[in-house]
Every structure is written in C-alpha cells, then in structure tokens.
Amino acid sequence: MKLFFISDIHGSAYYLAKAIERFQEEKADYIIILGDHLYHGARNPLPAEYNPKKVIEILNSFADRIIAVRGNCDCEVDEMLLNFPIMATYSTILYDNRRLFLTHGHIYNEKNVPKLKDGDVFIFGHTHIPQLEKKENLYIINPGSITLPKDNNPHTYGILENSIFRVKDLEGNIYKEINF
C-alpha cells in the first residue's frame, strides 16, 4: 500500500492542484490530509489562488480515497461542504505491523505524544516544517506544508511505501527520507 500525505492546504487551489498531480503520478492508494484544509488562518498570508470553493471541489472528487484529521483552522462548517469527515482530532492506520498515529499537531505534538508502542509512527502537520526522525523508539514525521512552508523549506508532501517515508518537493524530488 502506498500512502500520500499532505498538510496545511489552507485554501490554496494552486498548491492543492500541484499536490494532486503528484498523487496521481505517484500512483498512491490513499491521500492522508493532516488538517487545515480550507481556511488560510488569521496568522497566515493569503496563499496563491486562495479559493476554498475550488479546494472543496478538488477534494470531493477524491473523497473515497481521503483519510483526514482536523486542523486548528478547520471547523464544522467545512465538514458540511466536504464529502469526507475532517473533524477527528486524530486517526490511526495499521501499516506493516505498526500503528500510524495521524494528527494535525495543535493538540497532540512532540510535547504531547499519546501512548504509543515502540516502533509506532507519530505523524503530524501544523508546523509547516518537514521532520523525519526516530526519538525514544518512536518515529516522528511531519511532511511539511504544500502551501505555506516555513524556515526556507520547499513546498512538500510525504510518501510512505515499503516502510520508507519520503518527503518530496512538489516537483517530486526527494527532500528527506527515513526507513522504518
């Protein structure tokens, strides 16, 4: 199974369209969205082609292949317009005999990691900064942001296949990777 991870779309139809192109080229099975789907957020600038209605249209066309969690900029009204649930604080996926704990990062984060088994994977967004590391027998992963990267990082997404998590830029180039 090949999983495609994005976070922090923040209403940008431009960057979502680029990410969807990569999803299709990667031939991934599912899109995992780690929150902040439609709204740009009061602290953020308006992103390129800020168009939540277009983002809704694009995401709804892939609704049967999306697993999503709530970001700090997401609300119940957003879920009413999307054809898939987004209001869960976290989700889990069993992958290759380990748990992938998926969350946005504003509630559960590196300072508040839920109880996980050695070898499990904690995957979050929110910081807009790619991160791949092993810490105290857990894997800590952040695919970065497709729309508003921080700290001079490129616009990125994540791919998980064969127990290798790769963060790639929106041109498909490997930026970072970790094997578990």
TrEMBL record:
Coiled coil ranges = none
- Obligatory cofactor(s): a divalent metal cation
Q: What is its EC number?
A: 3.1.4.-
Give the GO molecular function terms. hydrolase activity; metal ion binding
Q: Where is the Calcineurin-like phosphoesterase domain?
A: 1-161
Q: Which SUPFAM superfamilies match?
A: Metallo-dependent phosphatases
Query: Which residues does UniProt assign to the signal peptide?
Result: none
Question: What are the alphabetically sorted keywords of the record?
Answer: Metal-binding
The protein's matches in Gene3D superfamilies, at most eight in alphabetical order, are given as: 3.60.21.10
Q: Which domain of life is it from?
A: Bacteria
Per its UniProt record, what InterPro entries does this chain match?
Calcineurin-like_PHP_lpxH, Metallo-depent_PP-like, MPP_YfcE, Phosphodiesterase_MJ0936/Vps29
The entry sums up its family as follows: Belongs to the metallophosphoesterase superfamily. YfcE family.
Q: Which PANTHER family match?
A: VACUOLAR SORTING PROTEIN VPS29
Protein name as catalogued: Phosphoesterase
